[in-house]
Structure of Ketol-acid reductoisomerase:
Amino acid sequence: MAQMNFGGVMENVVTREEFPLEKAREVLKNETIAVIGYGVQGPGQSLNLRDNGFNVIVGQRKGGKTWEKAVADGWVPGETLFDIEEACRRGTIIQYLLSDAAQIEVWPTVKKHLTAGKALYFSHGFGITYKERTGIVPPADVDVILVAPKGSGTSLRTMFLEGRGLNSSYAIFQDATGRAYDRVIALGIGVGSGYLFETTFKREVYSDLTGERGSLMGAIQGLLLAQYEVLRENGHTPSEAFNETVEELTQSLMPLFAKNGMDWMYANCSTTAQRGALDWMGPFHDAIKPVMQRLYESVKSGNEAQISIDSNSQPDYRSKLNEELRQLRESEMWQTAVTVRKLRPENN
Ligand SMILES: NC(=O)C1=CN([C@@H]2O[C@H](COP(=O)(O)OP(=O)(O)OC[C@H]3O[C@@H](n4cnc5c(N)ncnc54)[C@H](O)[C@@H]3O)[C@@H](O)[C@H]2O)C=CC1
Ligand SMILES: CC(=O)[C@](C)(O)C(=O)O
Ligand SMILES: [Mg+2]
Ligand SMILES: [Mg+2]
């Protein structure tokens, strides 16, 4: 375990150098890893595990698009692809990668096959942390562990194929066998993580729900739209409003601060821009902070979890989500984006 200094605070980080793939294979050589669910994380994690030489099977509802996708990806029905119950029976490690709402519904089936010494693995602290709402309470004689890739399962797979790893956080909720640490780290390496950051189930779910509702997904759309609207309301054309709000951010300025920090991005802009940005970052911060605090409280109280459980357990939740995504796609700002993207050098 390496100790690293993050802005003056020391934290534990596991590196691939200290826990190489060969060691991970040795730790898990007698295990059958059953990946349950083949949505977004399921394919990324199971294919990386398979390519890394682990003994892995997939459990998925029979029929339907995701079963077909698993077959297309080379999982063989009756050999490495089973219905959920059979995969749970065969697995010594059960990677529970159904959507968080579906985990509640399928829990009785999984629980039945959690015999002594098995491990139950999550990629989110949701089910365990909000157990009063999910009813997910594992038996005391199994390991309960977490590896949460900090990004989409799609990126986990593409970055693995590029020979890079996506960073993940890891946690141990219950160590029944004395092997929970070795198991969780070996799985973290196996699914294609780069570095593994230590956390707890609760801290993982609180930060993850805040991040996706906040700067990563919810707040970013709110911020961009507010600026786009103000520009449009003041007579600016769609292309001008979009270029000045989104395109310049993602194509020019975001890569600069991703690479070398915000001060470096600022330093590569005009002195006029730097003066204005340094003056306005304060007011924006002060306006947004109360909303962030409200969001965190809503996460902590379980309110956000309950909203997601209630909506995502409706039979028509997929079509409702798709309808909301359609409205976003067809908004003027994101329709302008379609035309602007065509003008990028790589699309010409
Ligand atoms: N999407 C992502 O990239 C990330 C997801 N996670 C976590 O990983 C876990 C899995 O998430 P996703 O891959 O997004 O899941 P998902 O929403 O793509 O669903 C996974 C699978 O659940 C199956 N499923 C849905 N309802 C079912 C039901 N009632 N019975 C049986 N199967 C059902 C679907 O067929 C699908 O194969 C969750 O805990 C999530 O929070 C963590 C990091 C990123
Ligand atoms: C991709 C990811 O880590 C998210 C945004 O938290 C999620 O999909 O839940
Ligand atoms: Mg996340
Ligand atoms: Mg999330």
Q: What stands out?
A: Residues 208, 212 surround magnesium ion (ligand 4) (CB under 6 Å). The chain has two domains: 2-199, 212-347. The chain is about 55% helix and 15% strand.
